[in-house]
Amino acid sequence: MNIQEVQNEIIEEFSMFEDWEERYQYMIDLGKSLPLIEEQYKTEDNIIKGCQSKVWVHAELKEDKIAFTADSDAIITKGIIAILIRVFSNQHPKDILEANTDFIDQIGLKEHLSPTRANGLVSMIKQLKLYAIAYQTQLN
Amino acid sequence: MLDLKKIRADFPILKRQVNGKPLVYFDNAATSQTPQQVIDVIVDYYSNYNANIHRGVHALSQEATDKYEAARHTIQNHFNAKHAHEIIYTSGTTESINLVAHGFASILQKGDEIIVSALEHHSNIVPWQMLCEKIGAVLKVIPMNQDGALVMAEYDKLLNNNTQLVFVNHISNALGTINPIEEIIEKAHQVGAAVLIDGAQACPHIKPDVQALDVDFYVASAHKMCGPTGVGMLYGKEAWLNKLPPYQGGGEMIAEVSFDKTTYAGLPHKMEAGTPNICGGIAFGAAIDYMNAIGFDAIANYEHELLEYATKSLLEIEGLKIYGTAKNKTSVISFNLDGIHPYDVGTILDKLGIAVRTGHHCAQPIMEYFKIPGTVRASFAFYNTKEEIDALVAGVKKAKMMLS
Ligand SMILES: Cc1ncc(COP(=O)(O)O)c(C=O)c1O
To answer: Which fold has domain B39-293?
Structure first.
């Protein structure tokens, strides 16, 4: 699936939730169930300081696609990370660079990507894109 | 007894809905809400007599100057300063502290010592660190204990003849601890040190008497006591303010200027360069009038009641731990749910229309002490109610259910 298709799939999933509680419970459960990153990559180097919750990001090139793993110490942040990873991981660097995150608005989680939210997610997306730039240069 | 119905009607924002729920505002320690009486003063200023002060012969300028100076007197009376010119308008607590730190840069010498407390707002530690670095002075810290109270026996040991300045907050913003500033001031004076008290968190709850305290400097922000943002004050004893050099160069602070020499204006203008926040200063006075009309004793009693009620109700939730359990504290509760990140709790509460603060509350040293990433902080004001606390408790229970 390409990035757009994954985003559409997520939008569809979220459209079944009736209210914020169901949406949040889903994210919390996502955040709880997934081991998102291997412990060895939870290093100071991979940390993105978001003031309140911490986010770790690790990237690896697998053939011509980037595999991302990430984690957070806050569970709701981790749930959103799980969604973002699903969208951006195992995609071509070029597609990652071109993709936007408007779907977050459509699934009712816009406030979490506000630049002033202090949860590290905005910096995380920036970091994903920086990895994409780096790997694209490497691939060329 | 407070007439809560009447008081709440004074605050238009309390009628608001957030995320479809009635707003429960428990972030008062970050900024307080503004009553209509103060909003009216702001509107009146811009509608009727907006003008620059201290420099016009025209009627509006005179009117604005009179109101601005009258507000200075209101602040003077409130803090019981001996002279009106001992009250310096600033943009807030942060600027007030920086003003004093800047002044001490020309007084301190290498090897001099400054004492701060472990309970400080960390942005307020920075000016002293910068100062010490520049001068080669030494910064010492009064430690705290598990309750979040200062260890006064350690303070005694830190004081010596090299101590020039002691800087402590009256009340901690992260934990609500009321510090024994009377004792701190008296002991500092015994070794000849000056004392600066950060009253940002105290002034919404307590009416300090700077003469009775015999404090050298006392600072506060209007926005935490029902006033507007961007205005605050520095009280300094006349002798100290005369001793400190001007903070900034500019209009208002000069008497005569030539290219050879400039003579500075007297107090308070020496410290107030440029066009100030005129409307803010006037509204600060109105906010103080508003709070005094309700009465600080009545406010303190009622807030204490809210604190006890909230503490008891929250502690009934299993796995909830309160940080800051000093005997003397104001209506601030900093807490965590076992194994749950404060950010997650705050996010769920926000969805329920409940405004709390989460994070380290600009007091990272305190969080490091407790080895936690932060807390959820609910801080109550005199316009809050027990019903709102019930909503908070229900919200925390819901957050716990969803998150664990
Ligand atoms: C104890 C304390 N000091 C200083 C400040 C800073 O005040 P302001 O931002 O109004 O300058 C605060 C505000 O949070 C505070 O709680």
So the answer is: Aspartate Aminotransferase; domain 2 (3.40.640)
Distances (CA, A) of B88 to A112, B236, B260, B300: 41, 8, 28, 27
A130: closest CA of chain B, how far (Å): 27
Residues of B in contact with A77 (CB under 8 A): 343-344
The model's pTM is 0.93
B279 is catalytic: no
Confidence of residue B95 (pLDDT cuts 50, 70, 90): very high
Domains with residue ranges and CATH for chain A: 3-139 (3.90.1010.10)
* Coarse DSSP helix, strand, coil percentages of chain B, rounded to the nearest 5 percent: 45, 20, 35
Nearest chain B alpha carbon to A20: B351
Per-residue pLDDT, averaged over B235-242, amounts to 97
Q: B379 in ligand 1 pocket by Cβ < 6 Å?
A: no
Secondary structure class of B376 (helix, strand, coil):
strand
The distance of A23 to chain B (nearest Cα, Å) reads: 11
Q: What is the topology classification, in CATH, of domain B4-30+296-403?
A: Aspartate Aminotransferase, domain 1 (3.90.1150)
Domain residue limits, chain B = 4-30+296-403, 39-293
The answer to whether B302 and B8 have CB atoms below 8 angstroms apart is no
Cβ neighbours of B342 in A, within 8 Å = 52
ipTM computed for the complex: 0.90
Q: Give the start-end residues of each E strand in B103-245.
A: 113-117, 138-142, 163-169, 194-198, 217-221, 232-236
The backbone torsions φ and ψ at residue B318, rounded to the nearest 5 degrees and listed phi first, read -65, 135
